[in-house]
Amino acid sequence: MLVLGIDTSCDDTSCAVVRDGREILSTIVSSQTDIHSDFGGVVPELACRSHILNILPVLDQSLRAAGTDMDRIDCIATTNRPGLIGALLIGLTAAKTFSCLLGKPLVALDHIACHIYSVQMCRPNIPFPSVGLVVSGGHTQLYYCRDYSRRDLLGGTQDDAAGEAYDKVAGILGLGYPGGAAVDDAARKGDRNKIRFKRTYLEKDSLEFSFSGIKTAVLYHVRGQDAGRCKKTRRRRRSQSRERGGTADIAAGFQESVVEVLAAKTILAARKKRVGAVTVSGGVAANSRLREVMEKRCGECGIEVFFPVPSLCTDNAAMVAGLGYHYARSGRTSGLTADAAAKVSPRSGKSTRRRKVRK
Fold first, then answer.
1. How buried is 286 (Cβ within 10 angstroms: 0-12 exposed, 13-18 middle, 19+ buried)?
2. Which residue in 52, 108, 118, 248 could disulfide with 190, CB within 3.0 to 4.6 Å?
């Protein structure tokens, strides 16, 4: 079965053709990094305009790269939640149009589920049930995964996502946008033990996350507690901060704090649910230190850990087409009334705002 995947959930326009859920025949991604870099983050209006301009050229490139055409496509899969609502609507509308005109079945998918499935595209024998950590610029969540489509939310971030914290810290350190790769590269040159930022674990055995504190801690370390004062004061504070560690050391200390929390809570979730396998997906899953620490810690606990290849970590339509195959094969298609939603489905269980910080 050939499935055409479409993803416009945030700032990348992507189309892919995948055969039988795993064989990637083509995957084309049109990045908008240059458009948003001057703003230090994604500007929704600019993202939507770019999606409108790029969706058809990207689709055409994807079909040509796969050596096929729309008549040979068996199903169209797209993401319809969560993400930027305007961006989602562009991809969903395109998918609905092709479905209607060509008489092809439509599958509208949760973007988070697609990220979790991206690991399965690389390692098809990952056992279920498993625990899935999805960590990106917009999401940091833990799931108990029963199979390809059934999952229970175990915990999520109460404020910033881990990837968002990376972007903001990169801005503080002057490393540019997007910040994930920039901070990772800088951290490789630094001493991760020179500057120890506090880790936020919240209440005992909590599977919730919080990364706003570490972002603020880096800001105060670099600019001082009076970060908002005059330029002369800020220059003096920056000079003092360099004496306490350079940019590379600060990046390494920040990254170690984030990675340790992600690893600890993922392993805690695996132990609570008594599973022997965890998956890590999303843009931050490409982070070299996260992979290193997760493999080490999980290995010590007798837990297998699986990552997607780096090209499938960031937003892409290949994972959408891959998961769409399983939905279409089981008859779980969507009608033309499928809607879009900006947020992930509400999580069950209690969340806490009380924070407990460990040194």
1. buried
2. 248
Measured CA to CA in angstroms, residue 332 lies from 75, 100, 316 at distances of 12, 17, 22
Residue 195 to residues 243, 255, 295, Cα–Cα distance (Å): 12, 11, 24
Give pLDDT tens digits for 35-73. Answer: 888 888 899 999 999 999 999 999 999 999 999 999 999
Instruction: Place 33 in a pLDDT band, splitting at 50, 70 and 90.
Output: confident
User: Does 2-115+315-329 match 127-310 in CATH topology?
Assistant: yes
Q: What is the CATH number of domain 2-115+315-329?
A: 3.30.420.40
Average pLDDT over residues 169-191: 93
* For the chain, domain boundaries: 2-115+315-329, 127-310
**Percent of the chain residues topping a pLDDT of 90:** 80
CB 318 within 8 A of CB 348: no
Residue 350 pLDDT: 34
Three-point CA angle 162, 163, 164, nearest 5°: 90
